[in-house]
């Protein structure tokens, strides 16, 4: 019997979501199973040995990683081993069933969605708060279609027109997250050089900066710019995305992007370092109002309207 009867009741709303959230649900299933194991007084090694699992397999199930959720048979076996009550078992199995439904982004060609990018998009769709720092491009969630096309064409100069179109469609669909009723809090910090680097055309840049101004007016979006004259800013050397999942017993996740891969950090000590780094960077950056003024000034001086 669980030490906290019916603690899964607060997860029932996720059973009725109109859009599947497989990444979130896999994580929720995993963290709840880990909780049931701890309630039963078992270590991972003991639980795995009791069912003939490898410890690595049980660790994967509890972390919620990978493209696919665990099998129903494995989850039922774990629930039986832990003595979980019927109500909580029922809710968890329903969550597991929904975790198998593909999210909109998983309907794209896997060549466009490597596993690390699949996970990032799924985490962003599930997060209640997203903090991001960019040193080269406008953050993906804030890009216009024309700017996204310029980014894709720059990064993949030999890609076919159809591949470029699909990649731009995928990037554009991601931005719809900001206009949902349950949109996350987004706090984006950019280096000023992002505003000065011309991608596509000056018209593309003006449209993109105008879009940033528009988005910064939304109550759930905060935008800050690190000016070029701040030479000692405590900025990370690579783009950073920090994700939080409020009230769901899930760890914060830090996403570090590389050219053809990415790292996901979940250890509290590691994620806390990045949270502190982003806090310092926010203190060193222009305030949101000053950042808006810089956006307007850059548009007028570098990208004047025709």
Helices, strands, pairings?
Elements (H helix, E strand, L loop, with lengths): L21 H18 L4 H8 L3 H9 L8 H11 L3 H14 L15 H12 L2 E6 L10 H11 L5 H14 L10 E7 L1 H4 L5 H15 L4 E6 L13 E5 L8 E5 L4 E4 L2 H17 L3 H15 L4
Parallel strand pairs: 1-2, 2-3
Antiparallel strand pairs: 1-4, 4-5, 5-6
Can you describe this structure?
This protein has a six-stranded mixed beta sheet with strand order 3-2-1-4-5-6, with helices on both faces. With 306 residues, the chain is an alpha/beta fold. Helix 1 (22-39) runs antiparallel to helix 5 (86-99) and helix 7 (145-155) crosses helix 8 (161-174). Strand 4 (240-244) and strand 5 form a beta hairpin. The protein contains twelve helices and six strands. The chain has two domains: 7-102, Orthogonal Bundle (434 Repressor (Amino-terminal Domain)), CATH 1.10.260; 111-141 and 177-302, Endonuclease, Chain A (2-Layer Sandwich), CATH 3.30.870. Helices cover 48% and strands 11% of the residues. It has helices at residues 22-39, 44-51, 55-63, 72-82, 86-99, 115-126, 145-155, 161-174, 193-196, 202-216, 268-284, 288-302; strands spanning 129-134, 185-191, 221-226, 240-244, 253-257, 262-265. The chain starts with 21 loop residues before the first helix and ends with a helix.
State the CATH superfamily name of the largest domain. Endonuclease Chain A
Give the tally of β-strands: 6
What is the percent of helical residues? 40-55%
SSE pattern: HHHHHHEHHEHHEEEEHH
Q: Please report which band the strand proportion falls in: under 5%, 5-15%, 15-25%, 25-35%, 35-45% or over 45%.
A: 5-15%
By DSSP (H or I, 4+ residues per run), the number of helices equals 12
Q: Can you name the CATH architecture of the largest domain? A: 2-Layer Sandwich
- What would you report as the Rg, rounded to the nearest angstrom? 22 Å
Structural class: alpha/beta
Fold-level CATH name of the largest domain = Endonuclease, Chain A
Number of domains: 2
Dominant shape: elongated
Mean pLDDT rating: 88
How would a textbook summarize the main sheet? 6 strands, mixed
C-alpha end-to-end distance: 70 Å
Low-confidence stretches: none
Spatial order of the strands in the main sheet? 3-2-1-4-5-6
What is the C-level CATH assignment of the largest domain? Alpha Beta
């Amino acid at each position: 019997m669980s030490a906290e009867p019916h603690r899964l009741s607060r997860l029932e709303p996720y059973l009725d979501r109109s859009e599947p959230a497989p990444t979130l649900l896999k994580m929720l299933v995993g963290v709840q199973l880990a909780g049931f194991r701890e309630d039963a007084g078992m270590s991972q090694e003991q639980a795995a040995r009791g069912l003939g699992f490898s410890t690595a397999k049980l660790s994967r199930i509890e972390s919620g990683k990978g493209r696919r959720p665990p099998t129903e048979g494995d989850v039922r076996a774990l629930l039986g081993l832990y003595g979980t009550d019927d109500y909580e078992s029922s809710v968890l199995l329903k969550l597991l069933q929904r975790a198998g439904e593909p999210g909109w982004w998983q309907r794209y060609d896997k060549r466009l969605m490597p596993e690390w990018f699949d996970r990032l998009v799924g985490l962003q769709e599930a997060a209640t708060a997203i903090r991001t720092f960019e040193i080269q491009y406008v953050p993906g969630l804030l890009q216009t279609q024309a700017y996204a096309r310029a980014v894709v064409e720059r990064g993949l100069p030999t890609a076919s027109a159809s591949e470029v179109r699909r990649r731009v469609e995928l990037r554009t669909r991601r931005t719809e997250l900001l206009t949902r009723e349950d949109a996350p809090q987004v706090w984006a910090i950019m280096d000023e050089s992002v505003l000065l680097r011309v991608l596509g055309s000056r018209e593309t840049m003006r449209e993109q900066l105008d879009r940033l101004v528009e988005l910064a007016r939304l109550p759930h979006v905060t935008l800050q710019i690190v000016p070029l004259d701040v030479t000692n800013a405590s900025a990370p050397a690579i783009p950073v995305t920090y994700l939080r999942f409020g009230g769901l017993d899930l760890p914060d996740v830090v996403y570090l992007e590389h050219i053809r891969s990415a790292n996901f950090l979940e250890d509290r000590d590691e994620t806390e370092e990045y949270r502190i780094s982003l806090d310092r960077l926010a203190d060193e950056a222009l305030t949101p109002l000053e950042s808006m003024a810089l956006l307007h000034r850059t548009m007028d001086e570098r990208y004047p309207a025709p």
